[in-house]
Amino acid sequence: MRRILTTLPATEVTELTKEETGRGTGLDFEAEVIVYNCDCHTYRQVIELFCRHIPGMRPSKAFELAWRIDHQGRASVYQGSQRSANEIAGKLAAGGLRVEVR
């Protein structure tokens, strides 16, 4: 019987660290804008407001968020800096939407 020697490759252990940039939440954003259902706007109105005031918003994503708001009562529509969240929430509220910044 032949003896076969096997050697395992050397392993290196590295420590992983998680960078936290939020306000002690462990999230990578400072604030988020929540929009609540109010039964006073059409999908078209909500989609137009989202596309006009939320950076990078596409009509397909805006429709998905409007549907979620309509069927689940609310949705997070923006996550980012506190300043941007406040500005976006102000514009959406001026359009008649019920909003909250968290």
Q: Care to describe what's here?
A:
The structure is a single chain. This protein has helices at 43-53, 59-72, 82-94; strands spanning 31-36, 74-80, 98-101. α1 crosses α2 (59-72). The chain starts with 30 loop residues before the first strand and ends with a strand. It has 102 residues and is of the alpha+beta class. It has a domain at 31-101: Ribosomal protein L7/L12, C-terminal domain/Adaptor protein ClpS (Ribosomal Protein L30, Chain: A). It is globular, with a radius of gyration of 23 Å. It has a 3-stranded antiparallel sheet with strand order 2-1-3. The longest helix is centred in the middle third of the chain and has 14 residues, at 59-72. Residues 1-9 and 11-25 have low confidence and may be disordered.
Write the layout of secondary structure elements.
Elements: E1 31-36, H1 43-53, H2 59-72, E2 74-80, H3 82-94, E3 98-101
Antiparallel strand pairs: 1-2, 1-3
Helix pairs in contact: 1-2
